């Protein structure tokens, strides 16, 4: 059986000529008895094997493997793969015997580890990339005649790039929109290559494996002489001052929020808090969401330590989730300050515009519309008495509410200032939610009139429908939601006829008032829904991902592909292989990634935002308008879930904020030192 082997090499190894790099570390991923993947994570000097004892090497490999993700440990173990020589000074047989001695030597050191495979690679300037496989120990057999596919990859580094087989937020398609051929369905039913996922996962863990191995093998603390330099002292002082400033500002904000929370719990102010939560429902929801996000930032900074995650892909996802929250807060505060400062500097003009708009809306639309409906609207002959009653009730309600707003006009100036202060302090979402609540309260008379006329219109429609079923000899069965046959008496038909005629003749009069107030109420609700949509967009938009995508698209991979550099057959020169029917094949390629577009990044976030809205709900709302049901005043868009409220002393919260920033800076500097010591050349090659 012809065997096939894929060797995944870091770009550093495929381009180096350094003879000190002779030991290969990584993972063996076995597909079957004839297929094998060899993922090389890094190389190190062969003298490190002789300097450490056998138990020490075994312990180092075991502890390094424990730091890898559980999904990778279940599929493959981190181990010593084999040797890499820059040249062969003897013939093939002597070199093979020499490597067999090294294989048995390491096999004795790693009795409990995976030792069924051992690979020997050599540097060959005549071959592609200057490297080729000499032979491989495969389950006790020495194999040199196999198809070899050498795949060169850039070592993934956190903040630079990584590899992924699919979309990050791809959701499975439950139903195909169009009928597809049978061969397409069979193709989708095929099981994916689990081993390929394991290979990509191991490649994403290569950098962490190298850092962990070198830490454990050297058994030295990560100290550096530059820690005692002037630059390190200046950097430490700068971080301490920054942490002190941010912690002080966060503590002031924390004390202000806690003061509001404590005052609302007092019995004297409890009724004020209950009333405000009912009248300012949207404001309280957005206020709690944004306040909890700001108050929990030190905890999230400590919990989401992305540098400790071994897999670069998982670390990138965790970092982007955290950055999305922080960027949303920052953008919200910036927009709130822009809107708030604009309102503060133009309060007088905004007040005059609001007075002018309220006057025109009340006189030119509401009063004029009611008077027009009491006459002959659009040439329709209505019932004069019913139109007069409905019109006078509407005019009286409008006049009463307008009179009340005249006494409240002096508070408009302070109301605008309150919107501005909310935007500056808590962000644009809280001030926009407050505007929604103010619009709802200011148009309460229109909502009441619409509710009253909707009640009359819906009952009239239901009565006409019931009487129409009476004439047809049908009756509604509410248990089975269907129409059943029913025998009505003559008296029931006579009474039904007497009721049906006036209700049908009065329906046009009721309908025009219902249509007028429905249009008015829907227009006001549309404005509130537009503001609600803006709030949800501010919450859902991943600003950090957009900015990172503009400058480094490599951090958003979507599938991999191979760029073939070299392909040839009959790679062996031995005369013993002339009788083989199938000559070995050597193929060298580069591992490349596709990248997500900006639309593919934004679509999952906006899909989640509109998850509560469907075509059926829109159809139900449209049918409800015709039958006399009220339109919903909210879209029901998805908002971030509020976090639990935080209770701790002010001093403890300041220490928490200060410690989170200092620890994050120390972990970042230590991580950078580890990269410099563990990946001096790989980082440069990946960034290039």
From TrEMBL:
GO terms for cellular component: membrane. Keywords: Membrane, Transmembrane, Transmembrane helix. InterPro entries: PigQ/GPI1 (IPR007720). The chain crosses the membrane at residues 230-253, 259-280, 326-345, 386-407, 414-436, 448-471, 492-517, 529-551. GO terms for biological process: GPI anchor biosynthetic process. The keyword Thylakoid does not apply. It holds the Pfam family Gpi1. This is N-acetylglucosaminyl-phosphatidylinositol biosynthetic protein gpi1. It comes from Brassica carinata (Ethiopian mustard). The lineage of its organism: Eukaryota, Viridiplantae, Streptophyta, Embryophyta, Tracheophyta.
């Amino acid at each position: 059986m012809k065997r096939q082997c894929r060797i995944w090499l870091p770009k550093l190894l495929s381009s180096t000529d350094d003879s000190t790099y002779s030991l290969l570390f990584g993972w063996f991923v076995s597909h079957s008895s004839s297929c094998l993947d060899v993922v090389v994570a890094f190389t190190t000097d062969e003298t490190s094997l002789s300097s450490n004892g056998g138990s020490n090497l075994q312990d180092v490999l075991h502890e390094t493997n424990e730091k890898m993700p559980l999904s990778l440990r279940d599929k493959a173990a981190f181990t010593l793969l084999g040797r890499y020589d820059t040249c062969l000074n003897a013939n093939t047989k002597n070199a093979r015997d020499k490597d067999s001695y090294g294989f048995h030597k390491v096999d004795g050191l790693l009795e409990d580890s995976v030792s069924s495979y051992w690979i020997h690679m050599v540097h060959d300037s005549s071959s592609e990339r200057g490297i080729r496989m000499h032979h491989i120990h495969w389950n006790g057999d020495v194999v040199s005649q196999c198809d070899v596919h050498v795949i060169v990859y850039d070592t993934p580094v956190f903040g630079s790039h990584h590899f992924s087989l699919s979309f990050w937020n791809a959701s499975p398609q439950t139903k195909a929109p169009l009928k597809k051929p049978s061969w397409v369905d069979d193709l989708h039913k095929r099981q994916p290559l689990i081993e390929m996922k394991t290979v990509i996962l191991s490649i994403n863990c290569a950098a962490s494996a190298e850092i962990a191995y070198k830490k454990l093998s050297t058994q030295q603390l990560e100290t550096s002489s530059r820690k005692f330099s002037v630059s390190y002292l200046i950097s430490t002082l700068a971080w301490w001052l920054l942490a002190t400033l941010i912690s002080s500002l966060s503590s002031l904000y924390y004390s202000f929020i806690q003061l509001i929370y404590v005052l609302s719990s007092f019995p004297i102010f409890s009724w004020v808090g209950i009333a405000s939560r009912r009248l300012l429902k949207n404001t309280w929801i957005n206020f709690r969401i944004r306040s909890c996000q700001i108050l929990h930032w030190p905890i999230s900074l400590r919990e989401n330590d992305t540098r400790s995650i071994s897999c670069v892909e998982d670390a990138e996802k965790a970092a982007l989730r955290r950055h999305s929250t922080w960027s949303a807060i920052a953008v919200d505060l910036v927009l709130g300050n822009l809107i708030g400062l604009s309102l503060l500097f133009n309060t007088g003009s905004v007040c005059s515009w609001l007075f002018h708009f309220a006057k025109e809306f009340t006189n030119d639309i509401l009063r004029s519309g009611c008077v027009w409906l009491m006459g002959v609207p659009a040439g329709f002959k209505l019932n004069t008495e019913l139109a007069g009653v409905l019109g006078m009730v509407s005019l009286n309600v409008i006049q009463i509410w307008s009179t009340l707003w005249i006494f409240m006009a002096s508070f408009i100036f302070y109301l605008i200032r309150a919107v501005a202060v909310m935007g500056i302090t808590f962000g644009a979402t809280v001030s926009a939610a407050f505007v929604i609540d103010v619009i709802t309260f200011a148009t309460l008379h229109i909502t009441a009139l619409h509710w009253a006329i909707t009640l009359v219109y819906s009952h009239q429609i239901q009565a006409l429908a019931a009487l129409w079923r009476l004439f047809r000899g049908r009756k509604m069965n509410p248990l089975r939601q269907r129409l059943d046959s029913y025998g009505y008496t003559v008296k029931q038909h006579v009474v039904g006829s007497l009721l049906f005629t006036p209700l049908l003749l009065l329906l046009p009069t009721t309908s025009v008032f219902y249509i007028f107030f429905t249009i008015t109420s829907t227009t006001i609700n549309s404005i509130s829904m537009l503001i609600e949509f803006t709030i949800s967009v501010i919450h859902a938009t991943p600003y950090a991902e957009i900015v990172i995508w503009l400058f480094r698209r490599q951090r958003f991979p979507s599938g991999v592909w191979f760029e073939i550099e070299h392909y040839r057959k009959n790679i062996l020169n031995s005369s013993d292989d002339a009788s083989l029917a199938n000559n070995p094949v050597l193929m060298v390629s580069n591992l490349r990634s596709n990248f997500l577009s900006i639309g593919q990044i934004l679509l999952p976030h906006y899909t989640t935002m509109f998850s509560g809205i469907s075509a059926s709900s829109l159809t139900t709302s449209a049918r409800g308008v015709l039958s006399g049901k009220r339109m919903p005043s909210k879209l029901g868009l998805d908002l971030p879930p509020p976090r639990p409220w935080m209770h701790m002393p002010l001093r403890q919260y300041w220490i928490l904020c200060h410690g989170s920033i200092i620890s994050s800076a120390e972990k970042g500097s230590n991580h950078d030192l580890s990269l410099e010591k563990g990946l001096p050349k790989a980082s440069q090659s990946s960034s290039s």
